[in-house]
Amino acid sequence: MGNGGSLSGSFYNQKDRLWLVIWVSGIIGLGLWDALFLNQPAFTLVRAAFGNTVVAGCLAVVLSIGFGWLLGVALHFLETRRRPVYLAVTFILNILRSIPQIVGILVGYIVLTVLIENEVLQSRFAQLAWMAFVISLFVFLEVVDLVRGRINHFSKLDFFHAMLCCGIKEHRIINREILWKNTRAHLFQKMVSIFGIAIFLQCSIDFIVSVGLSTDVSLSNFPVTLGNLLSRLDSKQDILAIGKAFTGLTDAQALLFQHLQGVSIAVLIVFTLLCVYKISNGLVSRFNL
Amino acid sequence: MKAKLIEHALSVFFVIGAFVILVIVWKHVQKSEAEARIKLVEPYLNLGFLDYSDPLHRALLKETLDLYYPDRTAKNDSLLLAIESFRQEQFTNQAYKTGGEERGLSSEKLVKLGNMYGLFILVYLLVMVLSYRVAQSLAVLRFIQMKQNRSSYVAELYRYLVGSSPAKGNVSFYFKAISLLGKAVVKGIGYAVLFSPAYVIGYSVRSTFETDSYFFMIVLGVVSNGLLINYANKFFTYLVTESRKGYVQAAIVKNLNASYAWGAGDGMSIRSVFNPQSLYPSHVFSHIYVNARYQYLLSLKEHASFLITGLIIIEMALNIQGHLGYELMQDLLYKEYDVAICIIAGIFLIVKGTEIFADAWFHVESRKYENRA
C-alpha cells in the first residue's frame, strides 16, 4: 500500500485473512438481513442449504487431499519400483482427466439415485458424503499433480539423498519432510481452491438434477443444498427479478425484501466463490507459492 | 511427441471400446428385462374375462391370488403392481407412441446427434478461442496494474478521501471521488458476473434477452462459471513467476525498456493488452509474455474440460432445446443410456482432440526454444 491512511496496515496486505473476514462478515450480514426480512420457513431452508453445501464442500476437500496425497506418494513409489503398474495407473488417471467434471459427476448422481431407490443410502449425511466423494473423484488429480511436483522437486535436492544415506526411510522423508514440513502451505492453498470448485460443481449439479433429472426419486429425498433450493420455482422467479431490476421493470428495492430467497441463495453462491478465489490468491501472495 | 500421441490413441481406443461394450451390455440387459416382465404379466393379461380398468375385477384378482397363494401376499401385491405399471406404459411410454421419433440409437438419431455435435464443437471452439485471448488480456492488464503499483479502487478512494488533496472541497474533488466509487461499483458488478454460475446470469436476464440463442450461449460460456477469471489468474501467475526470474533482471540491466507506464515512449500501450505480441522485443515484458505463454499452452487441456463442463451446465440448466447438453439430460431422464453413452463418448473425443492439439502446439513451441524448428 502506498502513502495514505491506516489502510496500509499489515492486515490489509494479508489478503487471505482480509477476505476471510469479509466472507464471514458478509455471510453474517446476509444472515441478519434474512432473519429480519425473510419468512421463517424460507430462512430455515436457506440456512440448511448453506450448511449442507459447506459440509459437502469441506468433505470433498478432505477426500481430495486424502486421495491426492495417497495416490501422489504411491505413484512416486510405483514409478521407481513397479514401472508397468505406474504406466497403467497414469493411463487411467489421464483418462479420468479427459472426462469433463460435470459428466462424471452426473454419472455419480445417477448412481446416487439408484442407491436411494434401493434404500442403500438413506441418511442425509450419507447422501452428502456420496456427493462429496463423487466431486472429489474429479478434482483430486490437482492434488496428485501438486504432490508429485513437490516430491520430484525435493528428491533432486541433496538433503533427500543425505537423509537416505542416514538410513531414514524414503516414505518418512516424503511424507514428513517433503509433504508435511515443506508443502503444507501449498496443500492449504489447494484445499481452499478445491473448496471453491467443489461448491461450484455441487451447486451446478444440484441445480441441473433438480431442474431436469429427478423423476424416480423425489426432490424431498435429497438433502437441501444451495443448488437445488435455487432451482425451485419461487427462487427462480426471484432470480428473474434481478434482470428486471436492471431494466427498470421491477423495483430494485423489491429484490431486498420480496425476492429475498432466490437473491440470498445467488448472493451466497457468488459471494462465496469470489471470496474463496481471493483467499486462495492471498495465500499464494503470502506464502510466495 | 510420438509417445504422447500413442498414449492419446490408446486412451481413445480404450474408452470408446469400453463405451461400445457398455452400450451392448445395456441393450442386452434392457431386452432381457423387458422379456422377463412380459413373461411375468402376460398370462394374467391374457385372461379375457378380466377387465383391468374395472376396480372390482382388480380386487377380485387380488383376492383370488391371496386365496391361491396365501403365504406370498407381498409377492401378489408386487405382481398386481407390475401388471398395472405394464398397462400404464402402453399409454405413456414414448416407445409405443406413433408419430414420435424412434427411441434408442437409430440411424435417424445418429444424424440428429451429429448435427447437434457439430454445432456444439463450433460453439466450443469459439468460446475456447475467445476465452483464451480474453484471459490473457485480463492477466496482462492485471500484471501491468501490479507493476504500476495500482491498488483497488476502494483503497484508492479511501486514501483519496482521508488524504490531503489540494482540491478538497472543490467540485473536482467530489467528481473524482464519485468517479472512483463508480469504477469500484462497476468492478464489483464485473466480479459478480465473472463468478456467477451460468444459470444465475441466464435466469436473471431471461426476461430481457433471448437466452436460447447461440450468441448468448457463447457470451455466457466465456464470462460465466468462473472460467475466464480462473484462467486469467493462471496466466497472471505465470507472468509473475517469469518476471521474478534472473533473465528479466539481466535484460533490465542491459537497458531493455522496463517501464509499465501507459503511453510512455518506453512504456506500455493499451494495444499491448489486447495483443501482447504487438509489443516491441525491446520491452522486457514481451519476453516475459512469450515465456509465460509457452507454459500456459498446456493449460488448454484442463481449460477444455472445464469449458465443456460450463457449456453443458448452460445447456442443461437453461433447458436449451435441440442442444447436445439438453439432449444428454433428456436421455438420462428417459433412461436412454445408449444414446447418453454415445454423447459422452463424443464429448470425450472433443477433450481428447484438444489435448492432442495442445500437446502438438507445445511440441512445436518447444522445438523453437530448443532451436530445432
Structure write-up:
The complex is a heterodimer of chains A (289) and B (373). Chain A is an all-alpha fold. Chain A has a single domain, classed as Orthogonal Bundle (MetI-like fold). In chain A, 81% of the residues lie in helices and 0% in strands. Chain A has 14 helices and no strands. The two termini of chain A are 21 Å apart. Chain B has 373 residues and is an all-alpha fold. In chain B, 74% of the residues lie in helices and 0% in strands. Chain B is elongated, with a radius of gyration of 31 Å. Chain B starts with a helix and ends with a helix. The mean pLDDT of chain B is 84. Chains A and B meet through α4, α5, α10, α12 and α14 of A and α1, α5, α6, α7 and α9 of B.
Q: Which architecture of chain A does the CATH hierarchy give at level 2?
A: Orthogonal Bundle
Major β-sheet annotation of chain A: none
How much helicity do the residues of chain B have?
over 70%
Number of helices in the DSSP assignment of chain B: 15
Biggest contact: A-B, 48 and 53 residues
How many separate structural domains of chain A?
Answer: 1
* Cα shape of chain B: elongated
Mean pLDDT, all residues of chain A: 86
Overall pLDDT level of chain B: 84
Query: What gyration radius of chain B follows from the Cα positions, in whole Å?
Result: 31 Å
Strand residue percentage of chain A: under 5%
Largest sheet of chain B: none
Number of domains of chain B: 2
Q: What is the CATH class name of chain A?
A: Mainly Alpha
Question: Which features would summarize this protein structure in a list?
Answer:
heterodimer; A: 289 residues; mainly alpha; MetI-like fold; 14 helices; B: 373 residues; 2 domains; 15 helices; elongated
